[in-house]
Amino acid sequence: MKHKLVVLSMALLMSVTLSACGSSSASHHKALNVTLPDEPATVDPNTSYDTNSASLINQTMEGLYKYNGDNKLVAGMATKVVKPTNGGKTYTFTLRKDAKWSNGKPVTANDFVTSFRRTVDPKTKAQFASIYDSFKNFAGVQSGKLSPDKLGVKALNAHKLQIQLSRPVPYFNGLVATKYLPVNAAAVKKYGKKFGTNAETSVYNGPYKLVGWTGSNSSWHYVKNPYYYNAKGVKIAKVNVTVAKDQNTSVNLFKGGKVDVTSVTGQYVRQNKDDPEMHTHLTGRLNYLYFNSKREKTNSMNLRKAMSLVINRKTLTDSVLQDGSKPALSAVPRNDQTDPATGKDMAEQVGNLLPYNVDQAKTYWKAYLKETGKKNVTLNLLTDDTDEDKHVGEYIQAAAQKAFDGLKVTVTSIPHAQHVARDFAGTFDMNLTGWSTNWLDSSDFTGLAASSNQVNFTHLKDAKLDTLLNQSNDLSGQARYDKLAEADKQLVQNMDYVPLYQPAQANLISKKVGGLKYSLIQDAQYQYAYWK
Length: 532
Description:
The chain is of the alpha+beta class. It contains 18 helices and 20 strands. The chain is globular.
């Protein structure tokens, strides 16, 4: 989830000013300057709900496991990657004794217990509490029938943590590395609801600590955490971050030597694909359209199918985005899960379930008008205010209005944090949004449309999909894969949401910077960056 050239203010330039290059020894102390495409909402791991907040958390927090410089899963706060017992339902971790928070206090098993219970506690209203749904007693705690201390996690002692699951989870290690993060229990108690709302109301256990983020400003810093157990391995001690929503701004900052890493999209990527400082990769994400089923005019399968069929996804990715993004084939992105028997990719194996057919689209549109008794309809499309989202929104607007008599589409583009707030409030007709995963398993995408999922912003209830997903939880291996492939097909058949494309991420990275590696599920971590 960048447009016209803007004049940069002195304040912005000052916020990203680089120190003089100097000698190679001096470069060790040189700050890395990077951009983020939009403002974050929080640095609280328990309530974070957007990709920009996740970026801050990814650089400043660490779980029991982490991804190393080669994007391989390794031990983090834990001493080793453990094997589960009790049929895959019990995990016992020993914490590093040199694991410390940025205030010098030790990271304890209780910090993980506090975090997990706080997330699942319904009073927290954590939007992604469902990532703990495999924990013992999750449902009872979430419903308020059981107290949070009944959740399947406990501190055996200060450095030993035990997790009890209700079922084995094939992708559990990925969750441990990216989602099951600790919080400083003392800080949570001290700051209460203000915890994580700015840099000063949180404590960090990762390679960097956050400095200078007020909760609403557009520039801040990551400063090396001196108490991080591998602080000596962090080569760049300071990272300056500036929000740059406009692509011309990003490019001008990069070309002018004001930033060292920035994201770019669209025609710039296509026109500069041979630039050695351009790095492009597919992401573990799908962008899609949601329709608000709580509004009468958008609670229609005929409407959802009409809109899906009128969108030429190849035109969208090749001509509108032009950044290496790929058309969605179904509700599961490419390279997300493989068939245990054949090793084939699920998305490719299931095949293209999202055809482009204007004639069929018009048939569904006429059926929609008939069922609603209307001749003219105005629908609003909600998007982020980034260049990418604006261009996609304009394409959908043009394609739909051209094909469908009586339709007017208006587009509202707003900052990401405001957009997410409206997602949860349900104040939209159509919603251009997306989902990024942190582990490779198709259930993370098919489960978005589950009736019980807190981020099912459509509020549709697809009983057949729910059944398939529930059945998959009791299976393993090939049987589980086959059930999830069925769920993928069911979601698209019912058009619970309309998959559009799998985004690519393109970054300009200075040739002077090394160590930044991106993957399908992992953004580059600045702790591994170095000056060449």
